[in-house]
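Quick review question:
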């Protein structure tokens, strides 16, 4: 794969992620913003992460990370649910809302921020990759990750960088400071291996043709499955679904055949149970991709393609690096279908409503 061969902004941004993560981590450390936010949110007892599209799946990853790292209840909602069913959310002053938006301009996210802040007096924290945005005007505080902004329509490094930033905030609140060092080491290691990873996925795409895609994960990796599914649909106009791995047995597996590409995001905690589903789908004739940190013999036997990332860190630190293979799968599938991932069909970079 020659990066210039594609000349794509989206591919450049995907490949830039390890370097951008290091920039964002350094920026957060230097600014001491996380310590300030931790001090200002001591009284908040429940965290609500809110976004749209990719930013909603980012919210899901952040909420699962928050519960485990900060030790507080957390959940994720699409902004539309806050707007249409705010009463079921039972907003209160002990809540902390986190509004996630790469552009800081998405109408539903802005309206959710305004409703929570001005009607329910819920404190609001924004996180965005742009400067001087309406979101920043509406929120009490805003984390800006300018190095993670993108030219491309689809979100790639903005997704992974904002995941890292919110995980870093959770770790700061929970005293899990070793996570920040793990994220830095992982970024440095992936910087040296991402080109080879991209070549392996480009070669896999060149050798195969699929009718549909499935992405499977448990725990925080389910959020990755949802984002991965959206990426391949946005970039390559392919039909894709995402499920909790073990849920896939309960009906959806009916679709599995030789033209079904199933990607498994394997967790440490659920490796045994998830590997059994992987083996079953391989036996049904599906083409299987395993994204994991260390592959067991059972995983190797049941996988058409094993992406063993081999990164140094705890399971939660794998959320940002594990999405990279799915971004690359979406990109190279689009190129193979003679589509332009930089200008996806039917889509706009920001959804602005009247
Ligand atoms: C949210 C979003 C993206 C999607 C597309 C339209 O944007 O739904 O997730 O890929 O770009 O907008 P934002 O609120 O994060 O800027």
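Suggested answer, residue by residue:
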């Amino acid at each position: 794969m020659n990066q210039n061969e594609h000349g794509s902004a989206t591919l450049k941004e995907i490949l830039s992620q390890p370097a951008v993560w290091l920039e964002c981590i350094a920026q957060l450390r230097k600014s001491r913003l996380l310590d300030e936010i931790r001090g200002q949110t001591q009284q908040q007892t429940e965290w609500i992460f809110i976004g749209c599209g990719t930013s909603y799946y980012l919210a899901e990853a952040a909420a699962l990370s928050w519960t485990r790292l900060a030790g507080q209840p957390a959940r994720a909602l699409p902004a539309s649910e806050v707007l249409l069913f705010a009463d079921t959310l039972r907003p209160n002053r002990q809540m902390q809302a986190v509004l996630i938006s790469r552009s800081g301009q998405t109408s539903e996210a802005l309206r959710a921020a305004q409703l929570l802040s001005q009607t329910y007096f819920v404190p609001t924290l924004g996180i965005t990759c742009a400067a001087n945005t309406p979101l920043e005007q509406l929120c009490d505080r805003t984390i800006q990750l300018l190095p993670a902004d993108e030219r491309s329509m689809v979100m790639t490094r903005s997704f992974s960088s904002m995941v890292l930033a919110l995980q870093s905030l959770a770790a700061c609140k929970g005293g899990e400071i070793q996570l920040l060092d793990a994220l830095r080491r992982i970024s440095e290691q992936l910087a040296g291996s991402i080109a080879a990873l991209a070549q392996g996925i480009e070669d896999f795409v060149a050798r195969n043709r699929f009718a549909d895609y499935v992405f499977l994960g448990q725990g925080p990796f389910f959020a990755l499955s949802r984002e991965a599914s959206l990426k391949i649909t946005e970039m390559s106009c392919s039909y894709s679904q995402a499920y909790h791995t073990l849920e896939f047995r309960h009906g959806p597996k009916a679709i599995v055949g030789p033209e079904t590409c199933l990607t498994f995001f394997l967790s440490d905690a659920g490796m045994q149970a998830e590997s059994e589903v992987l083996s079953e789908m391989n036996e049904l004739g599906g083409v299987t991709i395993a994204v994991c940190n260390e592959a067991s013999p059972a995983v190797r036997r049941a996988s058409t393609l094993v992406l063993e990332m081999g990164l140094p860190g705890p399971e939660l630190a794998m959320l940002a690096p594990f999405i990279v293979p799915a971004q690359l799968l979406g990109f190279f599938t689009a190129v193979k279908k003679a589509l332009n991932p930089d200008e996806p069909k039917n889509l706009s970079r920001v959804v602005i409503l009247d």
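Why it works: The mean pLDDT is 96. The first helix runs from residue 3 to 6.
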